[in-house]
Structures are given as structure tokens and as C-alpha cells.
Design brief:
The protein is an alpha+beta fold. It has helices at residues 13-37, 48-68, 81-84, 89-99, 108-116, 135-140, 227-236, 250-256, 278-290, 325-335; strands at 74-76, 125-133, 145-152, 155-163, 179-184, 188-193, 201-202, 216-219, 244-246, 262-265, 294-296, 317-320. The structure holds adenosine monophosphate and magnesium ion.
Length: 340
């Protein structure tokens, strides 16, 4: 049974119950795909496990969203174009096989239709989904997350991360049950085991305020950040510990749980005009804020979820326990001077 984190008179009570249930089930499905499709037989460059997990998770979340809140659009990362062409047929068969574990009678065509329902445009009230955030982590056996958020009037109201590679206390633990991390605006952030035994823990950011002691989180993938500037941040802040490299919004869960203090998404020199996708940030941002932390772009501006599928008005991300935010922004300003 899903624990009740909110009073049942809260206006988003049903939305939260729905989000917890679908993210939990989609995350467990991705874990099954990982267990059954990855292994020694697979070549390193074969992305098929994550492709199958991505599509199956999006099909399932989209199906249940349409059943539960039929008027709400879904803005999700994937579309079914590559499953509809003849070369995609065997992948579609695999996606359908996994989707049927949760939706026993779904037809391949309905799998595609549900995936494509996720190509809607943002509206006054809509949901945003990253079915597998951290695809490289998924393939490497590192961290990844199923991320679903509800956005109303440009503000994230619910954010839930299903993190199969985190412990219930939101620490990295690939052997554990995984964790489900949830936040509701104004109500707090919590973590619970992904397999749902009914216990949940309130998440609170760390109280660390001495920059040199900060535990800095960064992307594992060098191409998603700026490694030279990351090294410069370590020097400017006099960090004693090297940054912790981790894939996906699991980093936000770690920050919210007080197991990290600062997170930087610096701009990759290979994609200096990169804009963050809303599904890569919405759920994690609310988790950080509701655990008492702060999140902004590299210039200190709030993340603006009113501008479509990307954070068009923002560059990069700084997230922190709050205490370290101003020091982090000053350091970022200093190290980015050569950027502009
Ligand atoms: P992470 O695991 O934190 O590196 O974030 C994974 C997300 O980074 C993926 O879902 C991508 O959408 C996103 N991404 C892709 N290219 C870039 C880039 N150049 N800069 C920042 N993020 C990127
Ligand atoms: Mg992503």
C-alpha cells in the first residue's frame, strides 16, 4: 500500500498517489529490463536495453495517465517514430513484451500510440516525464531515474524520482531495493523503498556551510558538463574532496538527503548553447527545494518552466543545500569569465 504522505484533503492527494504508483511500477519495469537484457553477451555499444526500457516505461506511464487524468497533456522525452518503421519491428516486439507485464493485453500499435501521446505541448497544467534519465548510467550499471513531474501554471507541484540504484536513504546502493523520492510543493520531500513497504523518511539537505567541505556532485558524462571549469570550481572553492560523478537526477535525491551539498551543471564546450530539457530538471528541482535546498541556473536565476520543452531562459544549473548557494554562484561567475 502506498503510504499517505499528504492529508487526503490536499488538492493534489490523488495526483500524488498516482505519481508514486506509476513511477514505482515503471522503475521496477526498467529494472527488469536491465536485469534481463544486459549482461556479458551484450556488446558495449548496444543501446537496445535502454531503448526498450525507455519506450516501455513511457508507454506505461502514458497509458495510466490517460486513464487517470485524461485531460492532462504529457510532455515526455521519447516518440515512437523509430518503432513504427520496418527496422524497428523487433524492438517494438520487445517493448510490447515488457509493457505487457503491467498492461497484459496491450497491442504493439497501442504501445506506439501511448508513447506518442507524450509529444504533447506544455499547457496550463501538464506532466513531464523522463522515462529513463541517465541512459548511459543504465547501460553502465550506474545511476538512473524514472522522473515524473506535474507542472501547473509554470510551477512544479509534484516531483517523483524512481531510482533503482539508490538505497531507501537515497545513498548509492545498486544491490538494494532502490528508492522512490517524492516532493509536493509546500509539503516536503520524502524517500521510501522502491518496493514499497510503507515506510518513508523525510528528506533534509545538509547544514554544511563551509565551501571547502562541500561534497560536489557532477554528471558522470564529461560531455554533459565542462570538466575544466569543474576542476576550476574545485580550486576556487578550495574543495577538499574531488567531485562525485553520477548520472541522472539521482544526484538531486542525494543532495536532498544531505549526502551531497552542491551540484553543478556547467555548459559543455561542445554544446555551449545547450538548454536543459524540462523532464531532466522538473522532478529533481522540486525534490531539492522541498528538502530545504535551492536551485537556480548558473546566473542565479530561478528555473523557468513556462518556456516549452526546454529551459529556454536558463543556462546550466546550480543546486545546493542553500547555505552554499551564494558561494557557488560567485565561484561559477569567476570560472565562467572566459566563456562570455
Ligand atoms: P546527467 O546524467 O546528469 O549527465 O544528465 C543526463 C541528461 O543530460 C540527459 O537526459 C540528457 O538529456 C542531458 N544532456 C544531454 N546533452 C547535454 C549537454 N550537452 N549538457 C547537459 N546535459 C545534457
Ligand atoms: Mg534525461
Amino acid at each position: 500500500m502506498t503510504p499517505h504522505l499528504l492529508s487526503d484533503s490536499h488538492p493534489l492527494f490523488h495526483e500524488l498517489q498516482f505519481t508514486l504508483r506509476v513511477v514505482r511500477q515503471a522503475a521496477q519495469l526498467t529494472k527488469q529490463v536491465q536485469a534481463e537484457m544486459t549482461g556479458p553477451a551484450l556488446t558495449k555499444s548496444d543501446r537496445s536495453p535502454v531503448t526498450v526500457a525507455d519506450f516501455a516505461a513511457q508507454a506505461v506511464v502514458s497509458y495510466w495517465l490517460a486513464e487517470t487524468f485524461p485531460r492532462d497533456p504529457l510532455v515526455a522525452e521519447e516518440n515512437a517514430a523509430e518503432l513504427r518503421v520496418p527496422e524497428g519491428k523487433s524492438t517494438l516486439t520487445q517493448v510490447t513484451t515488457f509493457a505487457r507485464r503491467l498492461l497484459p493485453h496491450i497491442a504493439p500499435e497501442a504501445v506506439c500510440e501511448n508513447i506518442d501521446r507524450g509529444t504533447a505541448a506544455p499547457a496550463l497544467r501538464f506532466w513531464t516525464l523522463d522515462p529513463v534519465d541517465g541512459t548511459k548510467g543504465f547501460l553502465r550499471g550506474g545511476q538512473y531515474a524514472v522522473a515524473l513531474a506535474l507542472i501547473v501554471d509554470g510551477r512544479v507541484q509534484i516531483g517523483v524520482l524512481g531510482c533503482p540504484g539508490l538505497s531507501a536513504a537515497s545513498l548509492p546502493d545498486n544491490a538494494g531495493p532502490g528508492s522512490l523520492v517524492a516532493a509536493v510543493r509546500g509539503q516536503g520531500a520524502w524517500s521510501m523503498p522502491l518496493d514499497g513497504d510503507g515506510t518513508f523518511t523525510r528528506l533534509r539537505v545538509s547544514r554544511r556551510s563551509e565551501p571547502a567541505e562541500a561534497r560536489l556532485l557532477r554528471s558522470f558524462e564529461a560531455d554533459h558538463t565542462n570538466t575544466e571549469q569543474m576542476d576550476a570550481a574545485v580550486r576556487v572553492l578550495h574543495l577538499q574532496a574531488p567531485p562525485v560523478a553520477m548520472d541522472s537526477q539521482a544526484k538531486y535525491a542525494i543532495l536532498a538527503a544531505g549526502a551531497g551539498d552542491l551540484l553543478l551543471r556547467l555548459l559543455s564546450p561542445r554544446q555551449p548553447n545547450y538548454r536543459e530539457k524540462i523532464w531532466d530538471q522538473a522532478a529533481g528541482a522540486l525534490v531539492v527545494e522541498e528538502a530545504g535546498g535551492r536551485i537556480s541556473d548558473l546566473d542565479g536565476k530561478p528555473l523557468d518552466f513556462t518556456a516549452g520543452r526546454s529551459l529556454t531562459h536558463n543556462r546550466g544549473v546550480v543546486a545546493s543545500n542553500g547555505h552554499l548557494h551564494e558561494a557557488a554562484l560567485r565561484a561559477v561567475r569567476q570560472i565562467r569569465q572566459g566563456d562570455k
